Amino acid sequence: MAGSRPAEPDIVRYYTDVFVEADRLERTPLGRLEGLRTRQVLTRLLPPAPATVLDVGGGPGAYAGWLAAAGHRVHLVDLVPAHAAAARRAHPGVSATIGDARRLPLADGCADVTLLLGPLYHLTGRADRVAALREAARLTRPGGLVVTATISRQAPLMDLTRQGRVDDHTRPALLRTYATGVNDAGSGFTTAYFHRPDEVVDEFGTAGLPRPDLYGVEGPLWPLLAVAGGPEADGPLFAEVLRCATLFERDPEVIGASGHLLAATRRGADRAGG
């Protein structure tokens, strides 16, 4: 990772002592929108059950549990020991171990589907993100599916603005983050990188993977949920934001306005990234 010291301790500390990830996709309308839309897209892409799914950076198992309940064989790997332990407790049908997305002690072609729905958030160096993608390619069988999630470059600007945290003091750091993609430690978030859509495509290509299809997860109206509050955020407004996100999910002029991007491709017959 970029920087003078490894970022892994910061990430482990953040998700162990600072931030509760376990119910993130349930406790707010924004979280529910992200979870629902991610499941919608995955449902269309995944092969029929039972498939072998490797959930790299799967946290406490929000998606792993859902996939196992659908009949898939799921192995979760996460950098944070507390997350792997929580996944094992909450989802008995899911195996879970501790590991780094850039290098995993697993066999070539062991998965029908490899998901990276978190690791690319936290690798600030391009070489590290490409390494994680190459590893995903190695672990996926020929013709298998690779799906990643990234946080969009616009998300910090939208999120901090809706929190009322942008002023003359914080604006320079926020603009640096927008220019570089690297999160500023003063934001309250941990080590992170925010992608532009074309960067995602470029990194897949450098890793030897075919050009991915990109999907905007929350769509362009998601900030409205963050400022609406109350029952409206889960009522007609939520339904309209969800409808808009689905309608424009592949529009290249719009997807960058989503908080998160999904990228999906199928591994070629020759080992990618070798």
SS field, number of helical segments: 10
Which class of secondary structure composition applies to the elements?
A: alpha/beta
Query: What fraction of the residues are assigned to beta strands by DSSP?
Result: 15-25%
| Cα shape | globular
* Distance N to C terminus: 21 Å
Note down, in words, how this protein is organized.
The chain is an alpha/beta fold. The chain has 10 helices and 8 strands. It has helices spanning 8-18, 29-45, 62-69, 81-90, 126-139, 155-162, 171-180, 197-206, 222-228, 236-247; strands spanning 52-56, 73-78, 94-98, 111-116, 140-152, 194-195, 213-216, 260-266. Strands 1, 2, 3, 4, 5, 6, 7 and 8 form an 8-stranded mixed beta sheet that branches. The chain is globular, with a radius of gyration of 18 Å.
Question: What is the strand and helix layout of this fold?
Answer:
Layout: H1 8-18, H2 29-45, E1 52-56, H3 62-69, E2 73-78, H4 81-90, E3 94-98, E4 111-116, H5 126-139, E5 140-152, H6 155-162, H7 171-180, E6 194-195, H8 197-206, E7 213-216, H9 222-228, H10 236-247, E8 260-266
Parallel strand pairs: 1-2, 1-4, 2-3, 4-5, 5-6
Antiparallel strand pairs: 5-8, 7-8
